[in-house]
Amino acid sequence: MKIGIDIGGSHVASGIVGKDGKLIAKETRDININQINDEKRVESLLLEIIEGEIRLLLDKNDYTIGDITKIGVAVPGSPKNGVIRNLVNLHIKEFNLAEELNKIYKTTVKIKNDGKCAGIAEKEYGSLKKYSDCAFLCIGTGVGSAVFLNDELLEPKNNPGFEFGHIIIEKNGRKCNCGKNGCFETYASMKRFKAEAISNFNMDPNTEAEEVQRFIRNNIEKKSVKEFVDEYLDNVSIGLSNIINIFEVEAISFGGSFSYYCDIFIPKLKEKLKPLIFNKDTNPDLVTAKLMNDAGIIGATEI
Ligand SMILES: [Zn+2]
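Above: the input record for the complex with zinc ion. Below: its predicted structure, written as tokens.
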């Protein structure tokens, strides 16, 4: 039995994962750090939340920590050697989470970038199972990713790499949080898609993502909505074509809130990609992630 933990920008989800990536039990808590400016307090709050979730997982399911052979943690940013780094939403710069968890639980603790973890889960147990050369793209607030060639996850030695969100697709383009201009995620993120839909179609600034989706779906045949979606997918297809032309993948799987639109987006993307793919016999499958919100937890136990 292993424990997988997925640390997001606003919540922590943990689960007990059994054989073949089966999620046996899951706990989720919100992290509310609005009132906390002190990095040390955020770190101890994060530890408290993780400890609380692990306790609940074990108690509710009649396990002890002795049943757990490993703890894996999926985190945003660029974790390195067990240290979580640059968690912008949580205001954590550097925190040796692996060491802290190891002190408490005396078991192996592994930490990896969340896009990679979710990709591993999709590759092992989900939408990418049957492909040997493939990519996973989690398009939500930002863009997370993982690439597999010959069934192996491609991994640089130093940083997680594969920052597809920050490949430049427009020379003098939009300003990105990373400091550059024209990064893929400033055009492709669902956060941006939602914000622009709200401003373009004069919706209430507080409109929820579900409401935006309903509006887009109900009006997809209207010229203004069609043009808006087309413009968004033109940009997405430029980024995708770069990935396809570099890695020659057989499939790309989409996770994150982008996946809620896959039935509308994928047929359009297929058409838009045709003129952008270098090798004319390359025609990768575009598929929807299967494990969705559980992918980070499940993938974290495979690292
Ligand atoms: Zn950027």
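Notes for the reader.
Residues 166, 176, 178, 180, 183 surround zinc ion (CB under 6 Å).
The first strand starts at residue 2 and ends at 7.
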